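If you are new to this repository, start here. Below is one unmodified record pulled from the training split, so you can see the exact layout before writing a loader.
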Amino acid sequence: MTGDRVRDRADVVGDLHEEVGVSLARCDYRYTAGRRRIVDALADAGKPITLPDILAAAPELAPSSVYRNLDVLERSGVVQRIAAAGAHSFFEFAEPLISHHHHLICIDCGIIEDFRLDDDMERRVDSGLLEAAGKAGFTPLRHSVDLHGYCAACA
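And here is the target side for that same chain:
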Protein backbone atom coordinates (compact mmCIF):
# COMPACT_ATOMS: atom_id res chain seq x y z
CA MET A 1 0.00 0.00 0.00
CA THR A 2 2.76 2.45 0.88
CA GLY A 3 4.45 1.83 -2.47
CA ASP A 4 1.16 2.64 -4.23
CA ARG A 5 0.87 5.94 -2.40
CA VAL A 6 4.43 6.91 -3.31
CA ARG A 7 3.83 5.99 -6.94
CA ASP A 8 0.55 7.91 -6.97
CA ARG A 9 2.21 11.01 -5.52
CA ALA A 10 5.04 10.68 -8.02
CA ASP A 11 2.48 10.52 -10.83
CA VAL A 12 0.72 13.63 -9.51
CA VAL A 13 3.99 15.55 -9.14
CA GLY A 14 5.08 14.37 -12.60
CA ASP A 15 1.80 15.61 -14.09
CA LEU A 16 2.24 18.90 -12.23
CA HIS A 17 5.75 19.35 -13.61
CA GLU A 18 4.46 18.62 -17.10
CA GLU A 19 1.69 21.23 -16.77
CA VAL A 20 4.12 23.80 -15.36
CA GLY A 21 6.54 23.12 -18.21
CA VAL A 22 3.79 23.70 -20.76
CA SER A 23 2.69 26.93 -19.05
CA LEU A 24 6.25 28.25 -18.98
CA ALA A 25 6.92 27.28 -22.60
CA ARG A 26 3.72 29.04 -23.70
CA CYS A 27 5.26 32.23 -22.31
CA ASP A 28 8.72 31.50 -23.78
CA TYR A 29 10.31 30.60 -20.43
CA ARG A 30 12.47 27.56 -19.72
CA TYR A 31 11.68 25.17 -16.90
CA THR A 32 14.98 25.48 -15.06
CA ALA A 33 16.18 23.43 -12.10
CA GLY A 34 15.54 26.38 -9.77
CA ARG A 35 11.95 26.77 -10.96
CA ARG A 36 11.43 23.03 -10.63
CA ARG A 37 12.71 23.19 -7.03
CA ILE A 38 10.28 26.02 -6.21
CA VAL A 39 7.41 24.01 -7.70
CA ASP A 40 8.47 21.05 -5.54
CA ALA A 41 8.48 23.25 -2.42
CA LEU A 42 4.99 24.56 -3.21
CA ALA A 43 3.70 21.05 -3.93
CA ASP A 44 5.21 19.65 -0.72
CA ALA A 45 3.69 22.46 1.36
CA GLY A 46 0.19 21.91 0.01
CA LYS A 47 -0.85 25.37 1.18
CA PRO A 48 0.12 29.00 0.57
CA ILE A 49 3.69 29.67 1.74
CA THR A 50 6.03 32.65 2.00
CA LEU A 51 9.41 33.31 0.43
CA PRO A 52 11.16 32.35 3.72
CA ASP A 53 9.17 29.08 3.71
CA ILE A 54 10.38 28.35 0.18
CA LEU A 55 13.97 29.16 1.15
CA ALA A 56 13.72 26.83 4.15
CA ALA A 57 12.47 24.05 1.88
CA ALA A 58 15.12 24.76 -0.76
CA PRO A 59 18.14 26.22 1.07
CA GLU A 60 20.36 25.60 -1.94
CA LEU A 61 18.59 28.43 -3.80
CA ALA A 62 19.64 32.06 -3.43
CA PRO A 63 16.88 34.39 -2.19
CA SER A 64 17.28 36.69 -5.20
CA SER A 65 16.93 33.70 -7.55
CA VAL A 66 13.78 32.50 -5.79
CA TYR A 67 12.27 35.98 -5.96
CA ARG A 68 13.03 36.32 -9.70
CA ASN A 69 11.75 32.81 -10.44
CA LEU A 70 8.55 33.40 -8.47
CA ASP A 71 7.99 36.46 -10.63
CA VAL A 72 8.39 34.34 -13.80
CA LEU A 73 6.11 31.63 -12.41
CA GLU A 74 3.52 34.27 -11.53
CA ARG A 75 3.68 35.96 -14.95
CA SER A 76 3.27 32.59 -16.67
CA GLY A 77 0.15 31.74 -14.66
CA VAL A 78 1.71 28.94 -12.60
CA VAL A 79 1.79 30.73 -9.24
CA GLN A 80 -0.38 33.37 -7.66
CA ARG A 81 0.64 35.85 -4.97
CA ILE A 82 -1.63 36.42 -1.97
CA ALA A 83 -1.18 39.61 0.02
CA ALA A 84 -1.58 39.14 3.76
CA ALA A 85 -0.76 40.94 6.97
CA GLY A 86 2.93 41.05 7.74
CA ALA A 87 6.07 41.54 5.76
CA HIS A 88 5.70 38.64 3.32
CA SER A 89 3.36 37.71 0.53
CA PHE A 90 2.20 34.11 0.26
CA PHE A 91 2.48 32.02 -2.88
CA GLU A 92 0.47 29.07 -4.12
CA PHE A 93 -0.29 27.37 -7.40
CA ALA A 94 -2.74 29.21 -9.62
CA GLU A 95 -5.85 27.67 -11.08
CA PRO A 96 -6.18 25.33 -12.94
CA LEU A 97 -3.15 23.67 -11.32
CA ILE A 98 -5.17 23.46 -8.11
CA SER A 99 -8.89 23.38 -7.57
CA HIS A 100 -10.90 26.59 -7.19
CA HIS A 101 -10.91 27.85 -3.62
CA HIS A 102 -10.86 30.99 -1.50
CA HIS A 103 -8.86 32.23 1.49
CA LEU A 104 -9.34 33.17 5.12
CA ILE A 105 -6.58 35.67 5.98
CA CYS A 106 -5.81 36.61 9.59
CA ILE A 107 -4.95 40.31 9.80
CA ASP A 108 -3.09 39.73 13.07
CA CYS A 109 -0.76 36.75 12.53
CA GLY A 110 -1.02 36.62 8.72
CA ILE A 111 -1.93 32.95 8.49
CA ILE A 112 -3.87 31.94 5.38
CA GLU A 113 -6.31 29.06 5.27
CA ASP A 114 -7.97 27.75 2.13
CA PHE A 115 -11.72 27.21 2.05
CA ARG A 116 -14.16 26.02 -0.57
CA LEU A 117 -17.78 26.89 -1.10
CA ASP A 118 -20.27 24.16 -1.91
CA ASP A 119 -21.32 24.03 -5.56
CA ASP A 120 -24.64 25.81 -4.98
CA MET A 121 -23.02 28.69 -3.09
CA GLU A 122 -20.24 28.97 -5.68
CA ARG A 123 -22.86 29.28 -8.46
CA ARG A 124 -24.66 32.01 -6.50
CA VAL A 125 -21.41 33.91 -5.95
CA ASP A 126 -20.58 33.58 -9.68
CA SER A 127 -24.04 34.78 -10.62
CA GLY A 128 -23.86 37.81 -8.34
CA LEU A 129 -20.40 38.73 -9.55
CA LEU A 130 -21.40 38.34 -13.21
CA GLU A 131 -24.42 40.58 -12.63
CA ALA A 132 -22.30 43.26 -10.94
CA ALA A 133 -19.67 43.04 -13.68
CA GLY A 134 -22.31 43.29 -16.41
CA LYS A 135 -23.77 46.44 -14.89
CA ALA A 136 -20.29 47.98 -14.92
CA GLY A 137 -19.54 46.86 -18.48
CA PHE A 138 -16.76 44.67 -17.13
CA THR A 139 -15.79 41.30 -18.63
CA PRO A 140 -14.69 38.99 -15.79
CA LEU A 141 -12.25 36.12 -16.30
CA ARG A 142 -12.21 34.59 -12.82
CA HIS A 143 -12.83 35.53 -9.22
CA SER A 144 -11.28 35.05 -5.81
CA VAL A 145 -12.72 35.68 -2.40
CA ASP A 146 -10.36 36.54 0.43
CA LEU A 147 -11.95 37.06 3.82
CA HIS A 148 -9.82 39.18 6.15
CA GLY A 149 -10.34 38.88 9.88
CA TYR A 150 -9.00 37.04 12.91
CA CYS A 151 -8.12 33.35 13.07
CA ALA A 152 -9.25 31.29 16.08
CA ALA A 153 -5.87 31.76 17.80
CA CYS A 154 -5.92 35.55 17.43
CA ALA A 155 -9.62 36.22 18.02
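Two things worth knowing about this chain: The radius of gyration is 17 Å. The chain has two domains: 1-96, 99-155.
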